[in-house]
Design goal:
Helix content: over 70%
Structural class: mainly alpha
Shape: rod-shaped
Number of helices: 3
Strand order of the largest sheet: 1-2
Order of helices and strands: HHEEH
Length: about 150
């Protein structure tokens, strides 16, 4: 009854079926692998191009904003200089103008932390120094005029 299991014909039929089923599976595997690799390379290339394009667009937008900001800052300083040139040149005028100014120097550290430094104390110190220097020069002139 189990004699057909040991016959050579059954072995040949099973071997033929195995070969006929394995060869198409191997061919399908090979084409799939090649298609996967080419698709992967194409997707990586397209992704890199898209990321490069977005990065360039971001840098261009940031540079435009920065250039406009710098132009606005310089226009503001130019207007300040025109205003100061039209005023009486004395310490009180400069001090009142300086105290009315509300800006500082913004910096961003390498860790991303923003800080603002108020420039007015340094400016006021220098202004006081020059005011005192002018007073000394006026006193020298006064003394020299008495000595003559």
């Amino acid at each position: 009854m189990f004699r057909w299991l040991t016959s050579g014909l059954l072995l040949r039929i099973l071997s033929a079926l195995l070969v006929v089923s394995v060869i198409p599976i191997y061919v399908i595997y090979t084409f799939t692998q090649q298609s996967y690799e080419s698709t992967q390379a194409e997707v990586v290339t397209q992704s890199q191009k898209a990321l490069d394009t977005k990065a360039i667009q971001g840098l261009e937008a940031r540079s435009i904003v920065l250039a406009n900001s710098a132009a606005d800052f310089l226009d503001s300083r130019e207007n300040d200089l025109h205003f100061l040139a039209s005023q009486k040149p004395d310490a009180q005028t400069y001090l009142s103008f300086g105290s009315a100014q509300n800006s500082g120097l913004w910096t961003i550290k390498s860790d991303g932390q923003e800080t603002q430094k108020n420039l007015m104390p340094g400016i006021l110190t220098k202004l006081r120094f020059f005011t005192r220097l002018r007073q000394i020069q006026n006193n020298k002139k006064l003394i020299m005029s008495y000595m003559q």
